[in-house]
Amino acid sequence: MADFHQNGNITTLHDLRHRSEDNLAHEVSVLAGSRKVTLILPCLYSELEGPALPGILAQLSKVTYLHRIIIGLDAANEAQYRKARAFFSVLPQNHVVIWNDGPRMTAIQAQLQALGLAPKEKGKGKNVWSCIGYLLACADSSVMAIHDCDILTYKRSMLDRLVYPVVNPAFPYQMAKGFYPRIGDGKLNGRVTRLLVSPLLIALKRVIGDRSYIDYLRSFRYPLSGEFAIRTPILPDLRIPSDWGLEIGVLSEAWRNLAPKSVCQVEIADNYDHKHQNLSEEDAKTGLSRMSIDICKALFRKLAADGTVFTPNTFRTLKATYYRSALDLLDGYYNDAMMNGLSLDRHKEERAIELFAENIIKAGNVFLDNPHETPFIPTWNRVYAADRELLTRMHEAVDEDLQDFPASAMQAMP
After folding, report:
1. 1 confidence band (pLDDT: 50, 70, 90)
2. pLDDT band of 374, cuts 50, 70, 90
């Protein structure tokens, strides 16, 4: 996007098209010599059969500075775990595949359950949380990076740019959030960010008044991006949401735990595309419909924790204000797409806005009807306080799985 605008709330680090990718990668490699970097890849087994992950591994294989890669594998049986081991064996770096559904990790889950500290539902949040636990048990990394496994336009420079702000000791940043334009197949994508989060934050500011937290979230160009890097000392106190509010939840935790000058966003790509979720208008438990509800709940919970009082009337007003704000923004998105030769179906966009407006009410009702809901997974500091040996047992469980279930002879990589 090549501008140099700063919003005044958090620092934005741009790609000004002046420095070569190789030059930046070399500096990151030098810096990572004293600040070891671990990359976390949360994935479903089904993503091993998709078009994106082979390309991601081909790019990651060129990265020389990674100390470790932790792959959190969900929805896999024993045979699939073995195939996953073979699939990821192309990585030349030290790497480990965590079999989250295996008997040993299931036993760890049961121990957490007995302590009342287990994640309440499966999903990306639990996967990331488990990977962070393994990273903390290793106790040998200074920086954690994370990105999704469905990025169709992945380049190794995305990782270089993502980790640079937190691996550079001259910078004050504890967390870096990636951003990029969402474009693919000639379309303007990123519906949930464009059509829900951006207009909802505008509506919240109008309905409940000025809040520094809202201004903070509005400062992020792509708050729902799955790419971020964090210095590891803050990980033990990080509260991970168990639902689809993970990205908003992590930003909220950075707001709670860090000074604004410790958080930045960094431009990591000119173009970004990944698999697209269905809108799921008929089923609020799947697709973008569920995602929108979880995101709304994450925002309402955070604002309530900061003292905002919500009532049914608040949510009715918020819905109306959101709807008008979203339609106003849609005009701008449409004109932007047309000027850049991209397509944008206004009918489908307005249908999404109508669904999201209804889901604001649904999320509000869930929030009001469940005042004791605690959707966050306990911090690893709390787990350690309850059982000081659990992290060690988790590390041993993963290592024993690697010993007892070697990679399948059938190479899963094409």
Report:
1. low
2. low
Q: How far apart, in whole angstroms, are the C-alpha atoms of residue 313 and residue 303?
A: 16
At 149-198, the pLDDT tens digits run: 999 999 999 999 999 999 999 999 999 999 999 888 889 999 999 999 99
**Cα–Cα distance for residue pair 241/136, rounded to 1 Å:** 18
SS3 state of residue 269: coil
Query: 411 pLDDT band (50/70/90 cuts)?
Result: very low
What is the chain's length?
Answer: 414
Cβ–Cβ < 8 Å for 253, 213: no
Residue at token pair 């500075």: 65
To the nearest 10°, report the CA torsion of 387, 393, 398, 401: -140
Strand, coil or helix: 403 = helix
Which residue, among 22, 5, 35, has the nearest Cα to 230 in the 3D structure?
35
The answer to whether 1 and 16 are in contact (CB under 8 A) is no
Strands 37-44 and 183-184: unpaired
pLDDT digits (tens, 9 = 90+) for 246-302: 899 999 999 999 998 999 999 999 988 877 677 777 776 778 898 999 999 989 988
Question: Given the structure tokens 């269905």, which residue do they identify?
Answer: 278
The strand order across the sheet containing 263-267 reads 11-13, 263-267, 175-179, 228-231, 143-146, 37-44, 66-74, 95-99
pLDDT of 27-40, one tens digit each?
A: 999 999 999 999 99
Q: How far apart, in Å, are the Cα atoms of 164 and each of 36, 63, 136, 145? A: 12, 13, 21, 10
CA distances from 57 to 81, 128, 207, 299, 390 (A): 17, 19, 46, 34, 31
Instruction: Please state, in angstroms and rounded to a whole number, the distance separating the CA atoms of residues 359 and 361.
Output: 5
- The model's confidence at residue 3, banded by pLDDT at 50, 70 and 90, is confident
Query: CA nearest 301: which of 213, 196, 203?
Result: 213
**What residue has token string 């003292």?**
307
Measured from the Cβ of residue 78, the count of other Cβ atoms closer than 10 Å reads 15
Judge contact between 188 and 342, C-beta under 8 A: yes
- Rg, Å, the chain Cα set: 21
Start-to-end C-alpha separation, the chain: 34
Cα–Cα distance, 11 to 175 (Å, whole number)? 11
Are 17 and 2 in contact by the 8 Å Cβ rule? The answer is yes
